[in-house]
Each structure stands twice: as C-alpha cells, then as structure tokens.
Amino acid sequence: MLRRLVPATAASALLIAGLTGCSAQQAASADCTAGMAPGALSNSVVVLGEAGTTPQVQVPADTDIVSSQRTIVSEAQDRSQVAEERSLVGVNMAFFEPKSGKPLYESPGLVDASAAPEYLLVAEEMANPLSEAVRCAAVGDRIVLALSPTDSAQLAMQLGATPGDALVGVIDVVSARALAAQGPVRGLPNGYPAVVTDESGQPGVVLPPRAAPKGTSSAVRIEGDGEEVRADQNVIGQVLSVGWDGTVQQNSWTQGLMSFGTEEQVAQSGNTFRAQLTGKPVGSQVVIVENEGGSARVVVVDILGVN
Fold first, then answer.
1. Among 110, 272, 284, 297, which residue has the fewest nearby CB atoms (within 10 Å)?
2. Taking the complete model, does pTM exceed 0.85, yes or no?
3. CATH number reported for the structural domain that contains residue 258 in this entry
4. Is the same domain home to 29 and 143?
5. Helix H or strand E segment including 267
6. Which of 282, 148, 277, 266 is closest to 225 using CA atoms?
7. Which H or E run includes 108?
8. Is 85 exposed, middle or buried (0-12, 13-18, 19+ CB in 10 A)?
C-alpha cells in the first residue's frame, strides 16, 4: 500500500519533537513570514484549556469575516522548531460552530495524549487555509483560526457545519520537521551502495560494481530523533527506489510525499520493504537493499512521520 500524500483537512487528515535549538534555527524562525495575520475575530475568541487538551471556546456574537485570520493565543518559549516553508507539521485540531460554540471535530491527540498527531504540509505549491494557519508557528504554540465562509466551504461540508458560515478552530502545533531526514550520518555496511544527498536532502545512489547481495536487508544512514515506528502504524516519508541496473523506479522527491500503510496492509499489496521501517526512529533515512526472485533494487526512505 503506497499512495500520494496530499494536504490535510480536519476530517481527513494526512497523515514530528525536539531538536535542540541553535542560532541558525532561531535565525530561520525570525526570517519566516506568516501567511495569515491576526484579526478582530481570531483575537476575540476566548479559549479555555491548556495546549494539548480539548479546548472550549467562547466566540463573540458578530462572526462575520471577509478573510481568514489566525492568532497565537499560547506561545511556546522555545522558537527553535518552526513550521517553515517545506515542512511537515504535526497538529491536533478542534473545530467549532462560531455562533453556538458547538464542537464539530477534535483530533484523537486531544483526547489521548499517546495518539499520533495529524499532519499539514507547509508548501507554497500546496497552500491551503489550514497549512497557512500554522506557517511560522513554533512547536508548542496554540492557535485560534477563524476561517471565512469562502475558505471554510469544503471543510464545513465535511464536518457537517452550516454551509456559508465561518468556522472557528483551535490548532496545537506538536511537531515540525523538514521534508528530509536530519541527524547524524552513519556509514553503511560493506556491499551497500553509496548514498549521497544534495543541499535539499534529496538522495542519490551510487551502485557498486558487483552483484547485489541476496535477500533483503536495511541500515540506517541518517539517525533520527523521533519515536520508533511500530508495525501497526502508517508511515509518511520520501522514497527513492533504484534498480540494480541504475534505473529509477520511484522518486517521491519529484512526485510528492508518500504514505505507507501498516506492515499487514502493505504485505497484502506486495510491498516488500515496509517491514524494514519498523523499529527505526522517525526522522531517519533508511537504506534498504532487496534482491528477491532475481530482481534487485535499492530503496532509500526518509521517515518523516507516523500515524
């Protein structure tokens, strides 16, 4: 089971935790330009509850807005992890009818702290009101989002809200990760191809002048700092697959992020390398060598998130 990843909505979310801040990251945070500004409505919504818990909202009677607005109502002190351009942002979200305050939706992570977040892709080419609401927000921020009737039309339909009404949302930013593995680089075992990355993190494979080793094996080239992938989780990542003859079979770096199912799901669909990701930390780059049935290939997977 392998499918393209598209922008999240609250009802059908797409499908990341702590790097130590450094001056370069903080400078990037200062340079980030938010895509959505505070407004009269988002500033006046009262949110009850701490970040990470189910919120309750009090919305002023006049909810007419022309354009969508966002206000950071609880700001994290550590601004080193920011939802910059081309990042995958883990969020927990809740949405409400603005006139009544009636809850319409809440992410599983607001009910169960152990549940994985939902994900928004912050990228200009796939911009949408939800992803723009978290642009330049830091991990730990709680955001009030007031969506105009135009911007909320599709989401309102999915959530069963009244068409033509605005929507009010509360978004907790729980993680933010670049669209490439980041961390210490390890050497690969003997017999593995060489893997190099460009400045964007995109990998390339240099195959050795020898036959591929038999069977399937994997090694971590870049060690991430996230949770370990479980067999029953979906995996979100970047994938480069190259045949042992050098033919590129798949390249998400030019096609868009990919989402894998659980081990059981992908085994039924014929995917042979998903099991190699189980036990690897989120944020890692895993190099997999497969040589089953006379067909050899190298698969390089950057694990960006799980749910």
1. 272
2. no
3. 3.10.50.40
4. yes
5. helix 263-269
6. 282
7. helix 108-111
8. middle
300: nearest Cα among 201, 178, 183:
201
- Domain shared by 144 and 281, yes or no: no
Average pLDDT for residues 32-60, to the nearest whole number?
Answer: 90
Q: Tell me: do 156 and 17 sit in the same domain.
A: yes
- Strand ranges (E), 163-294: 167-178, 194-197, 203-206, 215-222, 235-243, 248-251, 258-260, 285-292
Q: What is the pLDDT of residues 145-195, one digit of tens each?
A: 999 999 998 898 899 888 778 899 999 999 999 999 999 999 999 889 999
Output the pLDDT for position 269: 65
Q: Coil, strand or helix: which one is 73?
A: strand
Question: Which structural domain, as residue segments, surrounds residue 167?
Answer: 2-177
DSSP helix/strand/coil, 216: strand
DSSP 189: P
Contact between 81 and 139 under an 8 Å Cβ cutoff? The reply is yes
Across 115-131, b (16+ Cβ under 10 Å) vs e yields: ebbbbbbbbeeeebbbb
174 close to 90: Cβ distance less than 8 angstroms: yes
Task: Say which residue, 15 or 237, is predicted with more confidence.
Answer: 237
Task: Give the tens place of pLDDT for each residue, 95-135.
Answer: 998 888 889 999 999 999 888 899 999 999 889 999 999 99
Number of domains in the chain: 2
- CA pseudo-torsion sign 264, 267, 273, 276: positive
Cα(116)–Cα(233) distance, integer angstroms? 9
